[in-house]
Amino acid sequence: MEEIPMSIPFNADEIFEMAEQIERNGARFYRRAAEGTAEQGNRQLLLDLAVMEDEHESTFASMRANLPDAKQ
User: Sign of dihedral through CA atoms 9, 25, 50, 45?
Assistant: First the structure.
């Protein structure tokens, strides 16, 4: 029986790109959840979490831009 590799190799640029997308998805999720939340405290918490995700995305984008072989 042929052995199937259990991992797919990714380079650092691809990993940071995926991380940025995960953070964008998280921010979008929290903002949509906030839109559907009536209680102001919960709404603000969700919006604060969205801002944190935006900051994480920026951090990953900066790290990606500073890779030795970053594509400009």
Answer: negative
